[in-house]
Each structure stands twice: as structure tokens, then as C-alpha cells.
């Protein structure tokens, strides 16, 4: 089991629990003070027997989202006595490789890139699902999602949260005041952008800075436009290198994205010029909407986690979102999705207990009740989803007319998807031409 340093608060708690150990042992309670046989601990019976053990989890989820994660499994910790030591980092992708190479991996990780997951699996660094865990996974998740965590016919992980990325955030109050209508086609969206720009306001605000992962929000733009300018089959060929990265069809999507992100009349509302996109944290990208400094921000449903406390997210509120319109509605409704996959680097019984719980319906509903979260777990009680944009996301996930594709950069080999493509997007925003950018990324594809 990987060992991590614990925060001061955890050490203080540990000291207090050590003093109380005798009383705890006599009462049969876990270290948390809860009786494992109490009714409130009944859902956790199958995970007990590991009192006092610690399981480390490493991921890219930070800030408010990380706080919600910790809250979502608190009762599991209290009832089982297993301490979950969670660490979220903006340098997750790079630092996870460092930890693994250094022989000190976390017990579990939430990996959002199937390409990175596959690299660890092919290097025999991941623990495959046990037959018991696979039974849980097969019963709780659609096969289309499980295939993203399957390598060489072996299942290595289960989905955790899901993201619907094809959204544009806006202020319903501002739209009402200005007389703007929610666009339903790409042309309508560009017409609205031009209308706003004519008032001397930059309509779009964007942030693609994310530590060592800087650039990823711009890849989402390209993926959404690949799905809108090309067929789903071409998108699949692109993500698997069935067509080269510098194919003219990819260049077309880049140019369509550039008509917004590299347009000085369109960006960067509230922050500065085009180059300010690369220095604006993605968490802050859409906040100028609340100050009336921009109007539109393309980001996934998770963006609600980064809005200031008290922001009303609703069709008549301070912020809401609409589906990023397609170019030709007659060709269907493409939806870009993503998510994290829980994988294991160790296989202790405590690790497997946490792994099983995170794949369960009990966990899915525990997390969903806290808001700002959706999941492909079919044991989710949809009525527990209360945040308005999350409801919108679930409507899209359940829409049988929608055509879903997973985040393309996440599907690509890690050297490309979370390497040269991220870097390439930054260089491109900063002025590099499209052909040179695509040639650079194509040249990095593993032979």
C-alpha cells in the first residue's frame, strides 16, 4: 500500500483516537466512533473488516469538487474504519507517472484519460478487476463505458463521474435584458457573437490554463467541432490515428475553432487579448459573465463547481447553459462526453473494498445528492440529481437521438492526447499557424 503524509488535522485526530482505543475496542465500534452494526452502517456491511487501514487516492480533482468527494465517502469511512487519504493535483498526469516510476504509486487513482490508463495497463502497473469487481462493474455500467477501461480484453477500471462537455454557459438574466435568444444552430451562435461584438464587448471568455495540463480546455473545442464538421466515423478514425492528425478534415475543425478562439473581436472578454486565454485559469474562464464583461463560455457541466457561492444556476438565474449547437441539425445531435475511471495500483483487501464501494449504486447516489455531479452508473436514482445543468446533462445522456463520443484527446495515446496536443493548442493560441501545429502533433504519434 502506498504511504502518503497526512495533513495535520488527520494526525491530531489519529492521536485522539489512539487515546480512545481502549474504549473503542470494548464497544466494538470503528475508529470513527460509529457502531458498524448500527442501522446507518447497514449499507457498508460488505466493506467492513479493515478498521484502521488507510487507502490513498490520487486524482486531478481539486478545490470544491475535491471537498465534495471527501464528503461523499465520509460515512463509508465512519462505518468501515478505513481512512481514505485523497490528494488532488493540477499536475496529476505528470506526477502520477513520477510516483509509479518511483515505486510509490497511490493505491487508487481517478484517471480521466483512457489513453493514459492503457499505458499503465500495458506496462503491467495496474491491478485488473477481480471476478467479484467485474460482476459489480458489468451490473452497474453500460458496456460502452467499460470498454474505455478495457485493455487487451482485461477490465482495469470502472467509471466514476461523467461530464457532458457540449455546453455553452450564459446568463439568462443578461439574455432577457439584452433581448438575446438562445441559439439553436452554429450559424445562430456566430450571428449572436457578431451582434455582441458590434456593441464593443467581446462575447466570449475563455481560460485554458491548468498547471501542467494547460491547453486541455482548447482540445475540447476541437473535439466538439470535429463532431460537428465531420461524421462520428471520421472522429473515431482521428482518435485512433486511422487518419493522420494533420488531415485536412482536422484542419477544418481547427479553423472553425480558430474563428472564435483566435478572433480578437470575440475573445477574451474580461481578461484581455487572444493570448490571455493561455494564462487565464480554466476555473475562472467564465466568471466575467457574472460581471457583465462577456456573454458566452463553452465548458462542461462541471463548471457549476467553480461558480461563486450564492450563484443561482437555473433557466431564470445568474448562470445556466445551453447545448452547443451543431452545424447541420439534420445530421443528428453530437455530444462530447468524458469521465474519470477508478483504477488500482495495489490490491490489498482495503483497497478492493474502497474500489468496490466507488463502483456501487450506494456511492453514486451518495455523491449525486451533494450536487454538481453525474455518472453513467445505472444504479443512480435520477431524482437525486438536483443541480439544473446536471439535470440538463442527464437529459442529454438519456437522449436516444444523441450521438455520443468520448473526449478525443483522452482516448489518444498519452504522449499525444495529454502531451503534444495540450502543448500544441497553447502554441496555436499564441500565434502558431494551423499547419505547423498539426504537423507537430502528427509527428509525435507513437510509431
Automatic annotation (TrEMBL):
Residues 1-25 form the signal peptide. This is Alpha-glucoside transport system substrate-binding protein. InterPro entries: Bact_solute-bd_prot1, SBP. Belongs to the bacterial solute-binding protein 1 family. The keyword Transcription regulation does not apply. The keyword tRNA-binding does not apply. Keywords: Signal, Transport.
Amino acid at each position: 500500500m502506498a504511504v502518503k503524509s497526512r495533513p495535520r488535522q488527520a494526525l491530531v485526530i489519529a492521536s485522539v483516537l489512539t487515546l480512545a482505543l481502549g474504549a473503542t475496542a470494548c464497544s466494538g465500534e470503528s475508529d470513527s466512533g460509529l457502531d458498524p452494526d448500527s442501522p446507518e452502517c447497514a449499507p457498508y456491511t460488505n466493506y467492513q473488516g479493515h478498521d484502521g487501514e488507510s487507502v490513498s487516492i490520487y486524482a486531478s480533482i481539486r478545490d470544491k469538487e475535491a471537498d465534495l468527494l471527501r464528503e461523499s465517502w465520509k460515512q463509508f469511512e465512519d462505518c468501515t474504519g478505513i481512512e481514505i487519504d485523497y490528494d488532488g493535483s493540477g499536475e496529476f498526469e505528470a506526477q502520477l507517472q513520477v510516483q509509479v516510476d518511483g515505486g510509490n504509486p497511490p493505491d487508487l487513482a481517478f484517471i480521466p484519460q483512457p489513453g493514459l490508463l492503457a499505458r499503465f495497463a500495458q506496462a503491467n502497473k495496474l491491478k485488473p478487476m477481480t471476478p467479484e469487481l467485474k460482476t459489480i462493474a458489468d451490473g452497474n455500467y453500460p458496456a460502452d463505458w467499460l470498454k474505455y477501461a478495457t485493455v487487451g480484453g482485461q477490465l482495469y477500471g470502472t467509471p466514476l463521474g461523467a461530464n457532458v462537455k457540449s455546453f455553452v454557459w450564459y446568463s439568462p438574466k443578461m439574455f432577457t435584458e439584452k433581448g438575446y435568444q438562445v441559439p439553436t444552430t452554429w450559424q445562430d451562435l456566430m450571428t449572436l457573437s457578431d451582434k455582441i461584438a458590434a456593441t464593443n464587448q467581446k462575447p466570449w471568455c475563455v481560460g485554458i490554463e491548468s498547471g501542467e495540463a494547460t491547453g486541455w480546455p482548447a482540445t475540447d473545442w476541437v473535439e466538439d467541432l470535429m463532431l460537428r464538421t465531420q461524421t462520428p466515423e471520421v472522429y473515431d478514425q482521428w482518435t485512433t490515428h486511422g487518419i493522420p492528425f494533420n488531415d485536412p478534415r482536422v484542419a477544418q475543425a481547427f479553423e472553425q475553432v480558430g474563428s472564435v478562439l483566435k478572433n480578437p473581436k470575440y475573445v477574451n472578454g474580461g481578461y484581455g487579448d487572444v493570448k490571455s486565454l493561455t494564462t487565464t485559469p480554466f476555473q475562472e474562464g467564465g466568471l466575467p459573465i457574472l460581471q457583465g464583461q462577456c456573454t458566452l463560455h463553452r465548458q462542461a457541466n462541471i463548471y457549476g463547481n467553480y461558480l461563486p457561492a450564492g450563484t443561482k444556476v437555473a433557466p431564470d438565474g445568474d448562470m445556466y447553459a445551453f447545448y452547443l449547437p451543431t452545424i447541420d441539425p439534420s445530421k443528428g445531435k453530437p455530444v462530447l462526453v468524458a469521465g474519470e475511471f477508478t483504477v488500482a495500483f495495489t490490491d490489498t483487501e482495503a483497497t478492493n473494498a474502497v474500489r468496490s464501494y466507488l463502483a456501487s449504486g450506494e456511492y453514486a447516489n451518495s455523491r449525486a445528492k451533494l450536487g454538481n455531479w453525474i455518472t453513467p452508473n445505472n444504479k443512480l436514482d435520477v431524482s437525486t440529481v438536483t443541480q439544473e445543468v446536471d439535470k440538463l446533462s442527464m437529459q442529454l445522456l438519456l437522449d436516444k437521438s444523441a450521438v455520443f463520443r468520448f473526449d478525443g484527446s483522452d482516448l489518444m495515446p498519452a504522449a499525444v492526447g495529454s502531451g503534444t496536443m495540450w502543448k500544441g493548442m497553447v502554441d496555436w493560441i499564441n500565434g502558431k499557424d494551423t499547419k505547423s501545429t498539426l504537423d507537430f502533433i502528427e509527428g509525435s504519434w507513437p510509431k
